[in-house]
Structure formats: structure tokens, C-alpha cells
Amino acid sequence: MERVVGGMGPLVLGGVGLLVMYYVMQKLRFKNRVQDSVVVITGASSGLGKECARVFHAAGARLILCGRNQTRLQELVQELGKTTNSKIKTYTPHTVTFDLSNTDTVAAAGEQILKCYGHVDVLINNAGISYRGNIMDTHVSVQRDVMETNYFGPVALTQAILPSMVQRHSGHIVAISSVQGRMAIPYRSAYAASKHATQAYFDCLRAEVERFGLQVTVISPGYIRTNLSLNAVTGDGSRYGVMDKTTAAGRDPVEVAYSVLRAVNQRQKEVLLAGPLPTVAVYLRTLWPALFFKLMASRARKEQRLKEE
């Protein structure tokens, strides 16, 4: 009997060790890494950016909110100032106003951002614009304008902030892309192209800065219930002004904002936030491209018929 009990000792100790290890891993997994961290959010005055501001503020981040409209940014600062958290210290956000589509001014905005606290811990490239249109009816200037906002703007801001992160061997860069950065659908050419470019750039960046200890995350949501489609541009540059059914039925931006926070806390490299069909389509594009192309062509024909009716 003593031999049996004695033989069980190592097993018990081993089991306890595994439980302790599991507990430690869970604590690390859910560690609030953003508390007291300097977090920059672009496009913070509306939509997903605004919800990210609320979520990261509640988590104790020292926010720098960026956007084109200073009045709306100040209104958000006042709103956040009214929220309190007895368990977590919160900070009054800073604001930096600039137009991300004007890449000539982004470097100066980056300097202004760095002056707020002297460094940036997390940069969330969220600002963007959508597009609806037929390629044949879309002027190349519209394609260029969408690319300026969705691709060149975030790239310029990232490269303005990046040297300070490399110098400190610390920092996390987040790109809010789209499921359309992983697979393209008809009548979204300018938007899908900009998001494909975003995916490629930040994939390259992740590999290049890993040696400095920096983190890079690409988050690819499906439709989010925001005004993105209302504010989308069309082929002639005019405002689309329609709330698509798919957008209206999209994910709650609060839910997506918490997913962004979780991705930063867990240092996830890539997050796909899409329903079953878009997720299948992403993998179908890689594994069975011929079928994917047929499905997209069928979708294009269907959408064209609906427009003509």
C-alpha cells in the first residue's frame, strides 16, 4: 500500500504543476497590457474608432485620439471624462487633428503624437473609407483617393511612429483591415485593393520588426454596423449615401472593439472576424480558386440585375 501511495506522489505533484502552469498561462493570456499604455487611435471620432476609444479608455489606456474633426474629438474626450472606473485608473485623452489622406501632413502629425507622452505603445490604424462602384465607371482618381486614405495614410503614420518603437524595442502596431483584404468581391475594387495592400504591407512589417521585439496585428472584420457604407464613395467620387443591408446587419462595433482590445492583450498576429460564409470564402480562394471565381462572377451578375430592375 505504501508503495502505491508513494508511486502516486510524483503523479500528484505533476498534476498540481500542470494546474499551476495552466493558471499562470491563463493569467498571462488575459493580462491587461494596455493599462497605463499610450494608445493612438485613428478615425476615433466615429464608428469602430469611437468604440475602440471607449473600450481602451475603460481599460486604463492613455489615449491619443486622431481624426479630421476636432469638435467631434473634443466631444468624445468630454464623454470619456464622465466615465469612471473604481478599479482602473483612467486618463484624459489627448487629441491630434489631421487628414490621413493627406500624406504630406502625416509626418508632422506623427511628431505631434509623439510629443504627447514621448512615446507610443500601441498604434491602432483604424481610419478608412469604403467604396461602391463598377470598375468601368470609376475614374482612376477615385481609386487613388481610396488608396491614399486606406493604405498610404496608415503606412505614412506607421513609418512616422516606427523609429521610436524600434529605438525602445517596444511597441504594438495594429491595422484594422477587412475580410476584403483576404478575398475580393465585385463592385468593391478600390476598397478591396486598398485592404489587400494593407494586408501585404503589415505582413512584411511583422517579419521585419520581429527582431526588435515589436508586435504587429492585422484584424480583418466582416461587415460592421457603422456608417461606412453611407460615407462610401462611388465611381465619380460622390457619396454613396446608402445603408447596405449587409452593413445594417453587421457586427456590433462594441463587440469588434473588444476583439481589438483582446488582440492587443493577447498579442495576436492576425484576427479574422467574419461569419461562416465569408470565412469559408477566404479559404476557398486559396484552396479552390476556380470555384471561388465562379461564385464571384455569379454574384456580380446578380448584383447587376438588381441594379437594372
TrEMBL record:
GO terms for molecular function: oxidoreductase activity, acting on the CH-OH group of donors, NAD or NADP as acceptor. Pfam families: adh_short. InterPro entries: NAD(P)-bd_dom_sf, Sc_DH/Rdtase_CS, SDR_fam. The keyword Lyase does not apply. One of its GO terms (cellular component) is membrane. The keyword Plastid does not apply. It comes from the Eukaryota. Keywords: Membrane, NAD, NADP, Oxidoreductase, Transmembrane, Transmembrane helix. The chain crosses the membrane at residues 6-25. NCBIfam families: PRK06181.1. Belongs to the short-chain dehydrogenases/reductases (SDR) family. Putative oxidoreductase. This is Dehydrogenase/reductase SDR family member 7B.
